[in-house]
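Re: the 292-residue chain
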Amino acid sequence: MSGWKKAKRYGENDIAFIIYTAFPFYLTRAKAVRLTWISRVTNYYFLSSVPDPSLPITVTNNTGEDYQSNTKKIFYGLELIYKAQLSIPASSRHKWYFLVGCDTYVNVPHLLKRLDAYDFQIPHFIGGSVGTQICFHRNGTTYKSLFVGGNTAHVYSAALVHAIYPHLFQYVNSIWPQPNHTSSGQSDVALSCLIFHLGFNMTIVPGFWRNTPDKTIQEFGLTEALSEKEPSSYHYVKPEQMIDLDEFYVYQYVDRLINDRNWNELKHFIRLFIGTHYKILRKNYRERLEIN
């Protein structure tokens, strides 16, 4: 309850939050994300191949809407987003790229504190879990490699995205297996293989959980699950639980600010929360008018 410390190095507007989704999830998982934690951030992108008036979709043409399409959807989306960044002044560009699925809850203030230790101008590939899978050479032969699990989020510094940007299209179309292959949908493996192939390493940090809070406790035990006081994200979160988690962490944040008598930050957050609430109400109202 006490001793809340705000992130010192970055603000939420330094991060591009990239959420990959699909048309069947627009009104469930994606909408829950949009109504909760993403409503309080500045830069966010929903990656999909189908446009929709209810979501600001970054359309990834020639991909698809099934699991096998995730890899091309993410590679094409990163390419589109970074290409647009190159047209604006360097001082205004995203410093970090945070990639998650639409069933992930993110505690943005906690995430920002995780990034305090890292310079966005240096290539960093950050995640929460490691596995082993198959990577592919250009000639189709394979090799085993570690990979950073996408179920705990992928975090890329701007310097890393700059380095992989020229290789995204060719890698996903010429080296990584196409949709009829069993490995084609493993987007986290594909990204890890490319990044490691280019000579960059990974950084694994705590607080990016690969499951929901209750299943995290079941998997690791209560003591270990609670050892991380400021978790950054949870995965496999259903829409109803997305709302529950957001409510819990909003109350926790407010309680901590009150306990520390941090009135300026409390005032800022209350105004932000009220402003985003009415912004969402207006969006929902306009969408109903369009539907009717």
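The mean pLDDT is 93.
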